[in-house]
Amino acid sequence: MNTSSILPNPKTTKTSSAHKVEWNPKLLEIPPQTRFEYTVANLAGGPKPHSHYDTEYHRTVLRGGMFAGQLTKVGMQQMFALGERLRKNYVEDIPFLSPIYNPQEVFVRSTNMFRNLESTRCLLAGLFQRQKESVIIHTDEAISEVLYPNYQSCWSLREKTRGRKKAAISQPGILEDLEKVKAGVGIADSDNVDFFILLDNMVAEEAHSLLSSPALKRFAQLIEQRAVDMALYMLQQEDRESIQMAVGPFLYILEGNLLKAVDPSTPPSKTRKMYLYATHDVTLLPMLLALGIFDNKWPPFAVDLTVELYQHQESKEWFVRLSYNGQEQVPRGCPDKLCPLDKFLNTMSAYSVSPEKYRRLCSQTRIMELGE
């Protein structure tokens, strides 16, 4: 799932428009129905790792006194609604999960950012509602996190992305459109702003009915499309290794979950009925490309990508059903919405990478050998 409505990220405050909006602390009030007790542990069950991202966010104070990148009441309600939808699907319509959280049934993992942990809390509140016992949300150190493209640990991805981002802005029409939008919303030419920053600002402001400039609404479609164009240019789908480095290790984990579930020798304690992963838009976009279901739109707040595993009662064959934002999808290489497991795994295997292969792809030595 993608994180929900948040305040602008620190990078967005470079724009003059970010300072025009007053972010009232009342936006952080917690809706009562979203309250849910949780503790955070590392992947081994030990103490929560330090989050350098949260430290960075706290260095930027927005007009109104709030820190950048915080989850708001609007976002909490969005995630609670997503949790309610999951409850309807997996608890009420089909009694698949227990109505109260059971750690033997559900594994929960989030990136180590407070807003994402809070997004997960709200989803769990919608999914399990009146829960008394605290739920453990697992997370990882930033250096080894695989739930987003990790530019900190993957040297090759960082260098490729940096070069392609510079080149993307000079693609036909993009620079001209950027200048047009900046002039239209009153951002100085000297401000270091791109379409990603504009999209971050615009979506956060629009979600809270706080648009800093009426022109932002007029340019909304153009800003989103150009952000998508830049992301596609930077990822370059035909360069399989870029997507492998961006989300390959995460796809490898998902692949492993499926394989363990269908292996009759897997002990019940080694698998779960549901794996919940709280990720980001920058994770979902390359995943949608890898699965062949990208709709050419930026992943919205509080969106979910769901992989369901089914077994035919008579033939005992396994199938996968994929949904994005509540809508069934046909993954690349699949004949129908109910996709034979082997065909789905074949699609994933083109982009999933083991930890060992990921280290090789990401190494500085390798990219220097290729002369890139």
TrEMBL record:
Polar residues: compositionally biased ranges: 1-18
Region annotation (Disordered) ranges: 1-20
Listed Gene3D superfamilies: Phosphoglycerate mutase-like (3.40.50.1240)
A molecular function GO annotation: lysophosphatidic acid phosphatase activity
One BP annotation, GO: lysobisphosphatidic acid metabolic process
Gene Ontology CC entries for this record: cytoplasm; mitochondrion
Pfam families found in the cross-reference section: His_Phos_2
Lineage top rank: taxon: Eukaryota
Homology family: Belongs to the histidine acid phosphatase family.
Protein's UniProt name: Acid phosphatase 6, lysophosphatidic
Name of the gene: Acp6
